[in-house]
Write a structure and sequence with these properties.
Layout (H helix, E strand, L loop, with lengths): L1 H30 L7 H25 L7 H33 L12 H20 L7 H15 L1 H31 L28
């Protein structure tokens, strides 16, 4: 039960952080006067977003006390929850990319806001940052991250907004549980250790399903 409360708490934190960051991005959009962003600009902003999300998550895991966990356990589970969260973001990005490719056929060229290599790079960098904060915790306590943490706490404590984000946190908890169960079933089924030969039989020499198995995680 304690682990569910822990995941629920992080889900609420992620939801409130997403709300605050949405306001930040709205400000950036207004300052840029609606100019269409280039792919590099999109991922620079996303890298900054993930950095502060990881930083705030670390601060919550390191400083908040959860029954049944020591500090090391909280950080370890926090890392796992972050990993699951980023995997979900990656899968959603791939789904949107597929829809974009279908819709964009025959239309004027526009920027695809998803790049798999950039996405992986940003996610790995964010997870490395979490590990570095774990080794060097003093660097996690910077003014901006502390401001984010305080703002999140204040919003959670408000009656109406707090309730809304707690509902979102509940659905986040359910989503994480489903991902963990799917991952466990995937590993127990032995599919993770089977060689996928479908791509080797492709007449074009490409493997279009190299990520399909992991999309179930």
């Amino acid at each position: 039960m304690e682990i569910f409360q822990f995941i629920f708490r992080l889900g609420v934190v992620f939801a409130v952080f997403g709300f605050i960051w949405g306001l930040v991005e709205l400000g950036i959009t207004l300052l840029s006067a609606g100019r269409q962003r280039q792919i590099a600009e999109i991922y620079i902003i996303k890298a900054v977003k993930y950095f502060f999300l990881v930083d705030v998550t670390f601060l919550v895991c390191a400083h908040d006390e959860f029954r049944g966990f020591d500090s090391t356990g909280q950080l370890a589970f926090g890392f796992i929850v972050l990993l699951m969260y980023f995997i979900g973001k990656l899968q959603n990005g791939q789904s949107r990319q597929q829809m974009f490719q279908l819709i964009a056929q025959g239309l004027p060229q526009s920027i695809n806001k998803f790049n798999f290599k950039y996405e992986i790079s940003v996610i790995i960098s964010a997870l490395i940052a979490f590990v570095l904060f774990w080794v060097f915790p003093t660097y996690a306590s910077n003014p901006l991250s502390i401001w984010f943490q305080d703002a999140i706490s204040n919003i959670i404590d408000t009656p109406i907004f707090g309730f809304i984000f707690k509902v979102i946190g509940f659905f986040f908890l359910m989503n994480i549980i489903l991902k963990m169960v799917n991952t466990l079933m995937f590993l127990l089924s032995g599919k993770a250790f089977q060689k996928n030969n479908k791509g080797n039989n492709d007449s074009n020499g490409t493997d279009n399903s190299s990520f399909d198995s992991w999309e179930e995680v």
